[in-house]
Amino acid sequence: MRRSLPLLVAGLAVALSACTSPVVVEAAPYAADPRCASVMLGIPDEVGGLPLQQTSSQATAAYGEESRIIVRCGVEVPGPSEEQCLAIDTPSASADWLVVEEDDVWRATIFGRDPATEVIIPKVRADQAVGELLAGLSASAVLADPNGLECR
């Protein structure tokens, strides 16, 4: 009986993890761009203390159980813009993000990179500064090719 207990516990853990459904996230229009693969392979396992969750679509990521932070690679590449531009400098990356405030979310799109990555941050996460969350995702977003545009 002692030998079967660890197997039972291991089997139960596998069964419970198999029941977890992926987070449904709509893929971006250009999610099939092969360059999104390097961006998505570079995303961290945790952002703002929130663990990475499995998603339903290519080139997407989600963080947290509720009020999730959503990441999508392959959104429309922004051109010159009047939107607020936030420069994020970390030891591993320097990135420019266009940040738009919507009703209940902040929508940030990497600027000057192709393919473009979008991050959707629910406003209920306002206790975690938008800049801090983008800093955690900048190193992966800048793996996309520079397109010559800068907002600095």
Note down, in words, how this protein is organized.
There is one protein chain. With 152 residues, this protein is an alpha+beta fold. The chain is 22% helix and 34% strand. It has helices at 4-18, 35-41, 130-141, and strands at 46-47, 50-53, 60-63, 69-75, 84-90, 93-101, 105-111, 113-114, 116-122, 145-146. The protein has an eight-stranded antiparallel sheet with strand order 1-2-3-4-9-7-6-5. The protein has a two-stranded antiparallel ribbon with strand order 8-10. A hairpin with a 3-residue loop joins strand 6 (93-101) and strand 7.
Short description:
This protein has 152 residues and is α+β, with helices and mostly antiparallel strands.
Which spans of ≥5 residues are poorly predicted at pLDDT below 50? Answer: 1-18
Strand order of the largest sheet: 1-2-3-4-9-7-6-5
Structural class of the secondary structure composition? alpha+beta
What's the average pLDDT?
87
Secondary structure tally, helices: 3
| Strand tally | 10
Between the first and last Cα atoms, what is the distance in angstroms? 66 Å
Strand content: 25-35%
Largest sheet features: 8 strands, antiparallel
Integer-rounded radius of gyration? 18 Å
Percent in helix: 10-25%
- Assign an overall shape: globular
Q: Element order, helices and strands?
A: HHEEEEEEEEEHE
